[in-house]
Amino acid sequence: MFSVQSGLVDVRDAVIYAQYTLTLPVSMSTRARYSDANRVLDEINNNLSEVY
Question: Which of 5, 12, 19, 21 is deepest in the core (most CB within 10 A)?
Answer without folding.
Answer: 21
